[in-house]
Design goal:
Elements lengths: L9 H25 L3 E3 L5 E2 L5 E2 L1 E3 L8 H17 L6 E5 L3 H12 L3 E4 L12 E2 L7 E9 L3 H12 L3 E10 L4 H7 L3 E7 H11 L4 H12 L1 H7 L9
Parallel strand pairs: 5-6, 5-8, 8-9, 9-10
Antiparallel strand pairs: 1-4, 2-3, 6-7
Helix pairs in contact: 1-2, 1-6, 2-3, 7-8
Length: about 240
């Protein structure tokens, strides 16, 4: 006797896909915690490239050799992009941390790969985009991490200068510190395999961080400038 699974309508399937995607994003967060790519230290905060400090540090370079993380990344990324109908011809990795993630995603989705330099070369052609990027191409920019989005804007400019366009940016981890809003101002949609909210939810449920650590990071993300001032650290406002 054959059996069939009743389907009420497309909305139910959409809800199911959303639930599965949520679980996959949680799994990605747990892998990052497990591999030490997400760390919390409220007593001795981490120095960031901006000169500011943070009680949380996310080091996505730490997991580029981990096959489980990369498989999860491509699975979740592909699901997100398909679910949102992201349209692109080429995948671009941002120098340098975005390049490994762009490479594995390009292979998974059978898309051409290029990468974008932070600065133009001081020799040769001076190109900031390496690889074959045809004018008019629609590009998906892939990065490891986004904070305030400043570095992503420079990559968007370089791609535009090469005659191509970006409507979607994909990152492994979104710190949720305004980067998505800055991209939206440029008409670009941010997609994240996982983010701070998801990471801390699974960490709290799994007992991976203490309550004091969670409260300190909550305070930091509510008002980073005040958090710095209360602890005697200088604050460099995002430009």
């Amino acid at each position: 006797m054959s059996h069939s699974i009743p389907v009420s309508g497309a909305g139910d399937l959409s809800d199911l896909t959303g639930a599965i995607l949520s679980r996959l994003r949680q799994a990605a967060s747990l892998l990052l915690w497990e591999q030490g790519a997400v760390q919390v230290n409220a007593e001795e905060p981490f120095r960031l490239a901006s000169g500011n400090v943070s009680p949380i540090y996310v080091d996505c370079r730490r997991v580029i050799s981990n096959r489980s993380v990369l498989r999860t990344f491509t699975m979740v990324a592909g699901t997100i992009l398909e679910r949102h109908g992201a349209d692109f011809d080429v995948i671009a990795g941002g120098e340098t941390a975005g390049i490994p993630y762009a490479a594995v995603l390009a292979e998974s989705l059978a898309k051409p790969l290029v990468y974008v330099r932070k600065k133009a070369k001081a020799y040769g052609t001076g190109s900031r985009v390496e690889g074959a990027l045809a004018p008019g191409s629609k590009v998906l920019l892939v990065e490891d991490l986004i904070t305030d989005g400043g570095s992503k804007l420079t990559f968007l400019d370089a791609i535009a200068d090469a005659g191509a366009s970006v409507s979607n940016v994909l990152v492994l981890f979104d710190r949720q510190q305004g980067g998505g809003d800055r991209l939206a101002e440029r008409g670009v949609t941010l997609h994240a395999v996982t983010d701070r909210t998801t990471a801390f939810a699974v960490a709290g449920a799994s007992g991976l961080i203490s309550e004091n650590a969670r409260l300190s990071t909550d305070e930091y993300f509510r008002d980073p400038a005040a958090w710095h001032a209360n602890r005697g650290y200088g604050w460099n406002a995002p430009s």
